Every structure is written in C-alpha cells, then in structure tokens.
Amino acid sequence: MFKLFKRVKTVVDSELNSLLDKAEDPVKMLEQFMRDMESDIREAEAAVAKQIANEKMLQKKYEDAQKMVDKRDEQAIKAIEAGNDDLARRALEDKKIHSQTADTLKESYDRAKLDSDSVRKKLDEMKAEYYEMKLKKDSLKARAESAKTRTKMNRTLSGIGSDDSKHGFDRMEEKVLQYEAEAETSEDMRSSNKSLDDEFKSLETNEVDDELAALKKKLGK
What we know:
Blueprint: H1 6-13, H2 16-21, H3 26-81, H4 85-160, H5 163-218
C-alpha cells in the first residue's frame, strides 16, 4: 500500500520549482505530475475498496460464528430443561468450536478494520495533497503562461528598436528625401522651360503687332 504513495510523496516533498527548472516545458511537466497523482489515487481507491470488502467479509463471518455460539448456548439450556443431558453436552461441545472460530475471526476482523481505517486515512491524505498540488499547478501554469507572454512581447518590442530597424528606417528616409528632391528638380525644370516658351511666344506676338501697324499705316488708318 505504501508503494502507491511513492510518486505522490516524491512530488510533495520535493521542491517543485527545482523540478520545473529541468523541464523543457513546465506546463506539460505539471500536467504529467497531476496525471501521475490521479493514477496513484485510482490505485489507492481500488486497494481501499478491496480492503473494506475483506473487512466486511470477516465481520460477517465473525457475526455468523457468534450467532452459532448464542444459538448452541440456548439449545443447551433447552436440552437441560428437557432433561436431555447428552443433547445439552453435544450442544455445548459445538458451542465451544464455534466460540473458538468466533474468537479467531474477531481477531482477523479487528486487524482488517484497523487496516481499513489506516488506508482510508492515507487515501484522504492523498486526495488532500492532490487538491493542494492542483491549486499550486494552476498557479504555476498561469505564471508560466504570463512569463511566456512577457518574454514574447519583450522580444517583439526589442526588435522594433534594434539597429537593423533603425538603419532600415534611415535608408527609407533617405530614399523619400531623394524622391522629393527629384520631384522639386523636375518642377523647377518644367517652370524654367515654360518661361522660355513664354518669352518666345511674346516675341512672336510683338512681330504680329508690328506687321499690323505697318499695314494700317499703308492704308492710312
């Protein structure tokens, strides 16, 4: 019976955190601990049920033997009252046999009852330890998940401000500045070309005006 508690005592008596340090995945390790404890409890429950059944069987046998003792005693009294000493003697002899059997069964029953009480107590202790470990497991599981989340977030945030990221942004900024400079240059060139065309157009307009004035002069207008 004590072997059933070996794995449980190992978990309870050891520092759980030190065990988790050696595990690749603390959450999976905790779940395995709980499965092992649940298996131990099921085995213990089966053993306790078997022990209780044995206790009840011995109790019934003892009670049956004791009933026979009481029955033979009553029969011996009746035989004496009827004046049949031989029958009374035989009843008392059988009573003695059943009495010895009852005494033996009583000792076995008392031991079985003590064993049943002991294993029931140990089973209760196992269940109490299991629920205590379950609460601790839930707490450690939540802490492990929180730590994983924080680690992931910290890695993500640290990557945002890394040198590679900064250099990348600097290159993109230079590229944008280059695009803006090219755009301004093209606009300047367009403006310059437009002014030159306007000047030539102005010259063409002046020539037409001169030609119109000469024509009017010729016609006396």
